[in-house]
Request: fold
Amino acid sequence: MEPDGRLAQLGAIRELPHRDALGFPELDESFRQPHETYRAALAVEARVLGALGLDARTVPIPERPCPWCASELLLHTDPDGPPTVTCTTGPSCTAPVRCDERGRRVWGWRELPALVVALDAAEQHAHGAVAA
Ligand SMILES: [Zn+2]
Reply:
């Protein structure tokens, strides 16, 4: 009875969508070599993080310019660390934060709340200027 039950469970597993339909690498091939397994795990991790929008990427923040110089702000996400925001102007931007290795003003995890407050204040000021 028990072996049949296990076989029935295996049969149920086979009914799940085939992993190729999800775009994952063929695991049977990958498990032949430990380093191939590691590479396959990294590929799967990258696909899952990408599908969730949590992979390392840089995207512009639409309609929210830098409150200090009005240039475009970029949001940088990375699964291995907290998000950061940079200003595209460079060191001549007067934002009260440090510059990164590329000379861009950067808001790290601790500075992000202050940036949000400044962005909201700039937006309210802009709406006030339009209404006046
Ligand atoms: Zn700026």
Notes: The chain has two domains: 17-53, 57-131. The helical segments are 2-14, 27-30, 34-52, 112-131. The beta strands are 57-60, 73-78, 81-87, 106-107.
